[in-house]
Q: What sequence folds into this?
């Protein structure tokens, strides 16, 4: 059935709607599922009529008049037809619905000027060549079609169908009657396509320049990102960036301007990065760290001196002097606050041997102030960046320990313990200089962390330092701190601490009830005297924990109650004794009890001296330091002078002085342990005097003091620890310098003072008078 069979157009023919444009030259399958369309094609088949296919069924709509070559019935009521387009047509009038029947007329073209059409066709050919070069998928045989076809309208229809134009533009070209205008519009559409392809190629080139050597997967992700941006789609990173911006705006009222600008700048940078790049990961880590800083969170500063006093008394037994100093410090600080005055008090530094409660005192202060406690271990710290933070120049950089401490505390004014401040090393930079800035109220309001790259206000942070040996703290840093010395515990104090705190705490840790385990007082005193040597109670806690573990095993095996007594103590502990043993009761020549200070408390240090035939030389053994060696030579010279002055009687008769006939060997036992200090001066002098006068030294006498060439006894340090060690060793009499007696005796526990005869001495004569057996 052809168009020539119907000379009487316009005529009534069925109309079907199709979403895509169908051109007159096309033979194309059409799938139909609408009931009215199926009825329409069936009517056309029954009436042997043409059919009209258009995008709408309204008067004035342009479409294609054609015929049905074949019809195939499909499942579910669907139908497929093979449609052949014959000519363009136009709906004149709708005459019926369901199915749509319309009066359709053939549309005749207006050819226009042949020369103009020919020129436009040449121009079209040029642009077709350009388009085929840019688009490898565009058919390259259109030039032959143009050259071999004399119908310009047919050429326009063929090329337009291949361009896959949007329906609006395609329909605009389809309904145009004037051939010249149709060619102009087609050329315009081709030019738009050429520009579009060029733009796409340019974008692809720019993307390739950005990703450079990236692989195909990376390129696809980059293009996907661009597509998502164009479509308004968001990915996971964009959701996180949105959350970052919201949190930043919430914190903005609490933070300084430099912090806000830096964090905002990094969020903006992250939004422009590829989510899988290493730089994006580094930047995102920074943003998460920075937004964790608790800019708006401050602990309430409700403070009560009475509450602090109660908390210290509750958590710690003894320590009367340190507690008083702490309360006085905070009383002055509270008074300054109430009067709106600046408090310029130095940072507290608790100094003492390990295990005496330095860190736990800081913990009690934090509880009394109702603030979080942050502990920063400085022992072995050698890199300044550990405190100030690492610059963000590599993956793995982190904020410094100070910034991390504030982040972990989740408040801007925690109690921060700078633990073991005396053990800082120097390898990269000077950590001490950073600590000076941190502890200085004039500087710490603008402490800059190198990782965060903005200032932190540390003025509200309460810093508390701890140290074992204050002499190793650099002088400028020591000047910033107020030292509170916490000495060794006496056996009685250890006993009370164990009864009140250690035993209940360890029992609870090991899931033992109070009624299930007990340690007798005698057994506890035996543990303190024979199993511990330390100044504090850390090792005592470990020993009690060991007993509790054995007790837990016995309870689990069915025992109702575990009683640890002096008789069965060896069943729970090994036989090794580590305490300070009582001194020998036998008086000996050349053996003197000295007193020494060590980082773990005081100790009794025996000094031994012998003489043998020689030329007056001094031999020193026992791994002695330079200061102690000098004390030995001073003591030897002093004794020579006393012998010459007849103040020390020598039994052996000879023409030349006795000290020229003998060499003196001084030994301090436990040679594996380094020993140094001037306080053994009078001890060595007494030992040398004993061997030359052949007089025994009293075994129940101990002494400490520095000696001069003129025989004067000078003061020493660590008196409290030394006297406690003498008390533990059951010494009866202790000789100490007069100045120590006058200024340091108040710090010594009453229990120790009552158990010792403490004798102040001013000269070596007094020392020898008390020490040598008459």
A:
């Amino acid at each position: 059935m052809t168009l020539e069979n119907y000379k009487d157009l316009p005529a009534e023919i069925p109309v079907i709607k199709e979403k895509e444009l169908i051109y007159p030259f096309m033979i194309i399958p059409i799938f139909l599922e609408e009931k009215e369309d199926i009825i329409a094609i069936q009517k056309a088949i029954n009436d042997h009529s043409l059919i009209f296919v258009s995008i709408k069924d309204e008067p004035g709509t342009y479409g294609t008049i054609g015929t049905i070559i074949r019809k195939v019935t499909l499942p579910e009521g669907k139908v497929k037809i093979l449609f052949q387009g014959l000519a363009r047509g136009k709906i004149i009038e709708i005459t019926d619905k369901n199915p749509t029947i319309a009066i359709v007329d053939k549309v005749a073209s207006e050819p226009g000027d042949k020369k103009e059409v020919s020129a436009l066709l040449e121009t079209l050919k040029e642009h077709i060549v350009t388009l085929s070069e840019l688009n490898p998928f565009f058919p390259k045989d259109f030039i032959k079609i143009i050259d071999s076809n004399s119908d310009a309208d047919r050429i326009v229809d063929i090329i337009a169908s291949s361009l896959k134009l949007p329906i609006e533009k395609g329909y605009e070209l389809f309904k145009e009657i004037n051939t010249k205008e149709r060619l102009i519009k087609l050329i315009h559409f081709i030019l738009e396509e050429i520009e579009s392809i060029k733009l796409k190629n340019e974008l692809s080139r720019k993307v390739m320049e950005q990703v450079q050597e990236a692989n195909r997967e990376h390129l696809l992700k980059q293009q996907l990102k661009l597509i998502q941006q164009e479509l308004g789609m968001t990915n996971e990173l964009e959701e996180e960036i949105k959350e970052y911006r919201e949190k930043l705006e919430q914190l903005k009222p609490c933070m300084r301007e430099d912090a806000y600008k830096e964090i905002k700048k990094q969020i903006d940078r992250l939004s422009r990065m590829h989510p899988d790049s290493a730089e994006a990961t580094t930047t995102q880590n920074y943003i998460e760290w920075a937004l964790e800083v608790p800019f708006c969170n401050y602990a309430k500063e409700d403070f009560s001196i009475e509450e602090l006093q109660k908390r210290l008394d509750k958590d710690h037994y003894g320590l009367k002097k340190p507690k008083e100093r702490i309360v006085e410090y905070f009383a002055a600080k509270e008074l300054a606050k109430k009067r709106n005055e600046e408090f310029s008090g130095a940072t507290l530094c608790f100094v003492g041997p390990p295990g005496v409660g330095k860190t736990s005192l800081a913990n009690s202060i934090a509880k009394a102030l109702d603030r979080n406690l942050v502990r920063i271990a400085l022992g072995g710290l050698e890199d300044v960046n550990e405190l100030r933070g690492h610059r963000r120049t590599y993956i793995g950089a982190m904020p410094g320990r100070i910034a991390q401490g504030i982040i972990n505390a989740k408040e801007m004014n925690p109690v921060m313990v700078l633990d073991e401040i005396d053990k800082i090393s120097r390898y990269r930079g000077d950590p001490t200089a950073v600590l000076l800035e941190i502890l200085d109220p004039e500087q710490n309001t603008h402490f800059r962390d190198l990782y965060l790259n903005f200032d932190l206000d540390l003025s509200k942070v309460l810093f508390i330092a701890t140290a074992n040996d204050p002499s190793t703290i650099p002088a400028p840093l020591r000047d910033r701190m107020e030292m509170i010395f916490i000495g060794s515990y006496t056996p009685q104090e250890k006993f009370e601490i164990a009864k009140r705190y250690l035993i209940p705490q360890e029992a609870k840790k090991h899931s033992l009830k109070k009624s299930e385990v007990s340690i007798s007082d005698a057994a506890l005193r035996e543990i303190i005297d024979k199993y511990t040597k330390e100044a504090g109670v850390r090792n005592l806690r470990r020993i009690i924990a060991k007993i509790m573990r054995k007790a837990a095993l016995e309870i689990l095996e069915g025992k109702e109650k575990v009683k640890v007594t002096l008789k069965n103590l060896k069943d729970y502990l090994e036989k090794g004794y580590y305490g300070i043993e009582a001194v020998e009761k036998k008086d000996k020549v050349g053996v003197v009890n000295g007193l020494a200070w060590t980082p773990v408390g005081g100790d009794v240090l025996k000094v031994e001296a012998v003489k043998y035939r020689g030329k007056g030389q001094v031999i020193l053994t026992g791994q002695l330091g330079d200061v102690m060696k000098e004390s030995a030579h001073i003591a030897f010279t002093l004794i020579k002078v006393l012998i010459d002055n007849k103040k020390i009687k020598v039994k052996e008769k000879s023409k030349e002085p006795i000290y020229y006939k003998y060499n003196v060997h001084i030994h301090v036992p436990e040679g594996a342990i380094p020993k140094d200090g001037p306080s053994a001066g009078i001890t060595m002098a007494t030992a040398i005097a004993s061997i030359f006068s052949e007089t025994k030294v009293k075994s129940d006498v101990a002494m400490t003091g520095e000696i001069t060439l003129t025989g004067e006894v000078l003061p020493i340090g660590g008196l409290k620890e030394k006297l406690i060690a003498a008390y533990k060793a059951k010494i009866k009499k202790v000789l100490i310098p007069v100045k120590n007696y006058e200024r340091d005796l108040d710090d010594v526990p009453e229990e120790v003072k009552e158990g010792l005869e403490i004798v102040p001495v001013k000269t070596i004569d007094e020392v020898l008078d008390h020490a040598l057996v008459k």
Notes: The domain at 588-771 is CATH 3.30.230.10 (Ribosomal Protein S5; domain 2). The chain has six domains: 3-106, 114-206, 234-288, 305-485, 491-572, 588-771. The radius of gyration is 50 Å.
